[in-house]
Design brief:
Layout lengths: L1 H19 L1 E7 L2 H9 L8 E7 L2 H9 L5 E5 H9 L4 E8 L6 E5 L14 E4 L4 H12 L8 E4 L2 H10 L4 E4 L3 H7 L3 E6 L7 E7 H6 L1 H20 L2 H11 L4 H10 L2 E3 L3 H16 L11 H4 L5 H4 L4
Parallel strand pairs: 1-2, 1-3, 6-7, 6-8
Antiparallel strand pairs: 3-10, 4-10, 4-11, 5-8, 5-9
Helix pairs in contact: 2-9, 2-10, 4-12, 7-11, 10-11
């Protein structure tokens, strides 16, 4: 009887400890949180989720580097930039989407119609962001050197103001900023990311969290992938929750989610090759010294693949 009581007490103690476990997740504009709440995949958690909201990937990765969060969702470009800068981060799950919403935008009445027209012009974007990435890729596609344009590195809200005020000639950005500006009739797309960028985004985690919170991260990645699969079938319920959480009209997320078609993919040879191309692009552009450039396979953790697989 004494042994049974001790066993029950030990089990209860384990359960309490598990209930006190916390996974601190960084989110961008309600993306993962709204999706997971709408899909109903957060039921039955054995740990507590603490969400932190960020306007872009750069501050999210800074928070991860500082130990303020354990994990988050970011695009391939800022993830590459952070890893090369020494942030102890790895991708634990991968997603692909169409790149209509990753775009170089100009004012609706702008005379600029092509990337070549932007030679010698000013483009606002976040340094190391997917906006930065699409400009570099578009310049290569057009046969122009990377210094053909002048970058004004600004966060999205400031970049939008710079474009509308005429302080810059173009703005390279992503969702939901692209759909918001398009629906407001403020901008026109000069070049989107389709065909020149791989359309990858990642769930990432710090090395410390991977070492100490692997079961939580694996469970979170599995639930997020399941939610992505759910939203792929019908983005409307997701748009309702996202709109309520962020405070923008439902037309914005409906446009964004409907054309993006996010889907979970395994971290396989194709994803590794595409991530290596991102690294090589930054090296060619001089943003990452060749001596500090990571190898893609070293920063993509495929060991979470089974846990993150979509549950159908």
């Amino acid at each position: 009887m004494r042994a049974l009581v001790l066993a029950i007490l030990a089990l209860l103690a384990t359960g309490v400890a598990r209930a006190e476990d916390v996974l601190r997740v960084g989110d961008q504009r309600g993306n993962a949180r709204a999706l997971m709440e709408a899909a109903g995949v957060l039921e039955g958690l054995t740990y507590r989720l603490e969400w932190s909201e960020f306007p872009a990937a750069a501050p999210l990765l800074e928070a991860l580097n500082a130990g303020a969060i354990d994990a988050g969702g970011v695009g391939d470009a800022p993830f590459t930039f952070a890893a090369a800068a020494g942030v102890p981060v790895k991708a634990i799950a991968a997603y692909r989407n169409r790149q209509d919403g990753l775009a170089i935008l100009v004012a609706k009445d702008s005379p600029f119609r092509s990337v070549a027209d932007l030679k010698g012009r000013r483009i606002a974007t976040n340094r190391g962001s997917i906006g930065h990435q699409v400009v570099l890729a578009a310049l290569e596609e057009a046969g122009l050197p990377f210094d053909s344009v002048t970058f004004n590195f600004l966060p999205p809200a400031d970049a939008k103001l710079a474009l509308t005020s005429g302080a810059v000639d173009a703005w390279a950005t992503w969702e939901p900023y692209t759909s918001t500006a398009e629906l407001a009739g403020l901008v026109r797309v000069v070049r989107d990311g389709n065909g020149i960028t791989p359309g990858l985004s990642f769930a990432v985690a710090s090395d410390g969290a991977i070492a100490k919170k692997r079961p939580l991260l694996a469970d979170f990645a599995r639930r997020l992938s399941k939610a992505r699969d759910w939203a792929l079938k019908d983005p409307a319920p997701y748009a309702v929750v996202w709109s309520r959480l962020i405070g923008l009209p439902e037309t914005v997320p409906l446009r964004w989610f409907g054309r993006a078609a996010y889907r979970a993919v395994p971290i396989d040879g194709t994803v590794i090759a595409d991530e290596q191309r991102n690294i090589d692009l930054y090296v060619r552009a001089g943003l990452i010294p060749k001596s500090r450039a990571p190898r893609a396979e070293a920063i993509l953790d495929a060991s979470f693949g089974q846990a993150a697989a979509v549950v159908r």
